[in-house]
């Protein structure tokens, strides 16, 4: 039992924090907010050079063989600067799904290119009617003589506009295996009949809705052998939840630091705001919730490869708890900044909006408390 | 990073489990489960202390030269966790975890030789004389006075919230020996024999129906000066040192989890008409379980830092706060889960020696008393408000 960072992990944290502190200032964020791409290709190239895109990819495929804990270390630093590069879409979800579901050829074709920064991915799974139910997929993939024909609509596809290829989930209709299987298909961004409509995402970066109107794909666009991909989807999204949770911790820490500073400087009634016990206690509660969130993000990362129920309960527990903490810390940061907190003139609002996006993405607190409860009774570890 | 235990730690876990299986009697287990107050009655708790002491585990936090077992923080974690899972009785915390460390840290050689073995063996049972009717959170405003008279102090005043004063044969107390420029000055830390003439004890019943705390009166009570720990007037320093221990060893999550498990079992049983089938109850169980997960993880993070010799600092206030709040959430949930049976008042104590058939199933007997008595968790050992002051000051610098 040891939760201290290894030397390698400490170095990773230091280099990530340094990079974010030096390259990701308020000016950069403002520029990105008005950028049609929503992130900087030059920064993405630096991510590749720093080895961060290769982090979770197996060593034999050009990666560094890191795990969810290392991803979390990186994401927490990203949160402090509100990094908007498509790291979750390409590395945390995209690379993980290909590694889990792809055959040897598919892995060889994609993973080294993700690692060197030449391939960006997105994952199109959510559908409007499904809400947060990962098993509910209406999109279809029909077997044709040439390969596959995909039809359906997807929403909330993170960074789909910037992806070279989009991984799309769809029900397989091939008149062979058992019915009800979900398959994952690699769809090139250039595919005819694929319509990508992107929009500015709450809290920074971009996302899109996509329409697949009978998109024709070759036979090898199906990842793996066509067995049901739902367990892999759940695994990958639980991983993304751990990563996003760590990012939320970084965001909350920055909000706490900023708000603490402000309450020391801002004077009302002839004394700093922080001289009031009600303000000090509020900040103590915020600090406590940041700490609880940090514990839950780490827990979800450490259990990212545990057996499915244990992993999923850790992920849902983290998502529910961190979401609740994030709303509290975010809302109170605005409250303590007073009227200025509600304006675009301070960055508090940008950080808060990213937290709201976090709590929404892949299901909010209420959804995950429910999922946690449905997944089983209280467990006493051995 | 690794959440799992290594081979040595697993072997130790087996050793602890073996010890508990051999020594924890069904009677002790039942009595502990049916105790709705914070502490076990001494007949139960001290039987367990004797068993622990025979094994060399009588005082896990003490240095080896005074009889501590020299455990790593991970071993302490395993011991506390296994003890909670098995439902062992509470030992005399005021002796082992409070006055013991103060005597070790600041006592004279004579005091160490006399008192420490008696704590280990369970021969002495200690109570804590800190709060006074006029001194709650503002503890250092205390007024109980000790006036020097030759080789004795003569003590007059009163202490309150004294847990198990009616069982204890000894008390450690903060008393005023002089008036300094600050109210923290002039306080001394003394050890008092409860049989000394002039001491009277008045029981105070808590809202759960338990006699656990008391008010103690001192009327010209003579205490030898030799019973003072450390320097005269420096008692506040020793008293604060002790409070750090009172706020816990930072291993509370296992006990909380057992408490929630008992409530969840009730919710799943026909005794409550399967309360768990209500999505509201099911979600609240998850909510509390997740809070326990977060606390456990924080405890493990602190423990890991301790293993490398780092100081946890103000995080002990976070642990105390969260532990107390979650404990209250568990008991509140329990009172909701048992439905109409929450209306039943069973006034007789102890609950494990009832001489009549209670009006509710035995599994539910402690639920409402625990909820009611449990309101004290956010008050004793420094209220939640005091803990927030400490967090703001120590962690945030405001």
Q: What is the global morphology of chain B?
A: globular
Compute the CA-based radius of gyration of chain A.
Answer: 21 Å
How far apart, in Å, are the first and last alpha carbons of chain B? 33 Å
Number of helices of chain A: 11
Q: What portion of residues of chain A is helical? A: 40-55%
Name the biggest interface.
A-B, 40 and 50 residues
Give me the oligomer status.
heterodimer
What is the succession of H and E elements of chain A?
HHHHHHEEEEEEEHEEHHHH
Number of strands of chain B: 8
Residue stretches of chain A low in confidence (pLDDT < 50, at least 5 long) are: none
How many strands of chain A? 9
Provide a brief overview of the structure.
Chain A has 382 residues and is α+β, with helices and mostly antiparallel strands. Chain A is 50% helix and 16% strand.
Task: Give a structural overview.
The complex is a heterodimer of chains A (382) and B (398). Chain A starts with 6 loop residues before the first helix and ends in an 8-residue tail after the last helix. Chain A is built from 11 helices and 9 strands. In chain A, strands 1, 2, 3, 4, 5, 6 and 7 form a 7-stranded mixed sheet that branches. In chain A, strands 8-9 form a two-stranded antiparallel ribbon. Chain A is 50% helix and 16% strand. Chain B is of the alpha+beta class and 398 residues long. In chain B, 44% of the residues lie in helices and 14% in strands. Chain B contains 12 helices and 8 strands. Chain B has helices spanning 7-23, 26-33, 42-54, 73-86, 93-106, 109-121, 235-246, 253-267, 279-307, 315-337, 367-373, 384-395, and strands at residues 126-129, 145-149, 152-160, 170-176, 187-193, 199-205, 211-224, 228-229. In chain B, the strands form 2 sheets. A 4-stranded mixed sheet of chain B has the order 1-4-5-8. In chain B, strands 2-3-7-6 form a 4-stranded antiparallel sheet, with no helix packed on it. In chain B, helix 1 runs parallel beside helix 4 (73-86). The longest helix of chain B has 29 residues, at 279-307. The radius of gyration of chain B is 22 Å and the shape is globular. The model of chain B has no long low-confidence stretch (mean pLDDT 95). Chains A and B meet through helix 7, helix 8, helix 9 and helix 11 of A and helix 4, helix 8, helix 9, helix 10 and helix 12 of B.
């Amino acid at each position: 039992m040891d939760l201290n960072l290894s030397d390698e992990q400490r170095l990773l944290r230091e280099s990530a924090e340094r990079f974010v502190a030096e390259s990701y200032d308020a000016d950069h964020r403002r520029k990105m907010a008005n950028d049609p791409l929503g992130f900087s290709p030059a920064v993405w190239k630096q991510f590749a050079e720093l080895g961060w895109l290769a982090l979770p990819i197996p060593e034999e495929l050009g990666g560094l063989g890191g795990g969810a804990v290392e991803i979390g270390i990186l994401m927490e630093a990203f949160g402090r600067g509100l990094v908007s590069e498509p790291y979750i879409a390409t590395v945390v979800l995209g690379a993980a799904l290909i590694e889990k579901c792809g055959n040897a050829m598919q892995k060889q074709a994609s993973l080294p290119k993700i690692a060197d920064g030449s391939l960006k991915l997105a994952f199109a799974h959510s559908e409007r009617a499904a809400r947060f139910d990962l098993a509910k997929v209406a999109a279809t993939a029909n077997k044709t003589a040439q390969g596959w024909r995909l039809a359906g609509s997807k929403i909330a596809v993170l960074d789909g506009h910037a992806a070279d290829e989009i991984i799309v989930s769809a029900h397989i209709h091939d008149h062979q295996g058992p019915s009800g299987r979900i398959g994952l298909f690699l769809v090139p961004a250039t595919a005819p009949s694929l319509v990508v409509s992107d929009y500015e995402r709450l809290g920074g970066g971009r996302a899109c809705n996509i329409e697949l109107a009978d998109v024709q794909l070759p036979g090898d666009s199906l990842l793996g052998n066509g067995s049901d991909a739902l367990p892999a989807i759940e695994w990958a999204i639980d991983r993304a939840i751990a990563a996003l949770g760590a990012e939320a911790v970084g965001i909350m820490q920055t909000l706490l630091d900023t708000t603490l500073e402000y309450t020391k400087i801002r004077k009302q009634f002839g004394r700093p705001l922080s001289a009031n016990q009600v303000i000090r206690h509020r900040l103590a509660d915020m600090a406590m919730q940041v700490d609880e969130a940090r514990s839950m993000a780490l827990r979800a990362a450490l259990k990212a490869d545990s057996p499915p129920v244990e992993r999923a309960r850790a992920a849902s527990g983290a998502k529910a708890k961190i979401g609740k903490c994030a709303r509290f810390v975010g809302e109170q940061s605005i409250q303590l900044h007073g009227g200025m907190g509600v304006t675009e003139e301070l960055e508090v609002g940008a950080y808060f909006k990213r937290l709201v996006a976090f709590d929404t993405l892949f299901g909010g607190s209420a959804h995950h408390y429910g999922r946690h409860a449905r997944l089983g009774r209280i467990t006493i570890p051995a | 990073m690794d959440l799992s235990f290594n081979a040595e730690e697993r072997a130790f876990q087996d050793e602890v489990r073996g010890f508990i299986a051999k020594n924890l009697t069904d009677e002790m287990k039942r009595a502990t489960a049916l105790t709705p107050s914070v502490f076990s009655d001494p007949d139960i708790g001290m039987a367990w202390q004797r068993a622990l002491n025979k094994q060399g585990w009588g005082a896990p936090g003490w240095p080896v030269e005074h009889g501590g077992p020299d455990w790593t923080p991970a071993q302490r974690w395993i011991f506390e966790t296994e003890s909670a899972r098995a439902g062992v009785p509470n030992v005399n915390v005021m002796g082992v975890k409070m006055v013991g460390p103060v005597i070790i840290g600041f006592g004279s050689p004579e005091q160490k030789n006399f008192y420490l073995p008696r704590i280990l063996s369970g021969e002495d049972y200690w109570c804590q004389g800190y709060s006074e009717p006029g001194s709650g959170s503002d503890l250092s405003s205390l007024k109980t006075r000790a006036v020097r008279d030759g080789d004795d102090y003569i003590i007059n005043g009163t202490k309150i919230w004294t847990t198990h004063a009616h069982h204890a044969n000894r008390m450690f107390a903060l008393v005023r020996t002089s008036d300094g420029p600050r109210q923290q000055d002039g306080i001394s830390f003394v050890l008092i024999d409860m049989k000394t003439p002039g001491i009277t004890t008045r029981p105070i019943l808590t809202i759960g129906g338990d006699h656990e705390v008391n008010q103690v009166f001192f009327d010209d009570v003579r205490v030898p000066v030799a019973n003072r720990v450390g320097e005269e007037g420096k008692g506040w320093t020793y008293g604060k040192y002790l409070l750090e221990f009172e706020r816990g060893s930072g291993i509370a999550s296992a006990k909380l989890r057992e408490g929630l498990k008992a409530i969840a079992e009730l919710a799943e049983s026909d005794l409550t008409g399967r309360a768990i089938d209500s999505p509201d109850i099911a979600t609240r169980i998850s909510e509390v379980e997740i809070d326990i997960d977060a606390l456990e993880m924080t405890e493990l993070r602190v423990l890991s830092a301790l293993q490398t010799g780092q100081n946890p600092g103000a995080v002990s206030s976070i642990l105390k706060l969260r532990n107390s709040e979650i404990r209250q959430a568990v008991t509140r949930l329990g009172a909701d889960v048992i439905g109409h049976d929450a209306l039943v008042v069973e006034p007789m104590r102890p609950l494990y020696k009832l001489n009549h058939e209670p009006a509710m199933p035995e599994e539910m007997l402690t639920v409402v008393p625990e909820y009611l008595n449990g309101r004290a968790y956010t008050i004793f050992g420094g209220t939640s408000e005091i803990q927030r002051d400490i967090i703001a000051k120590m962690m945030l610098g405001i």
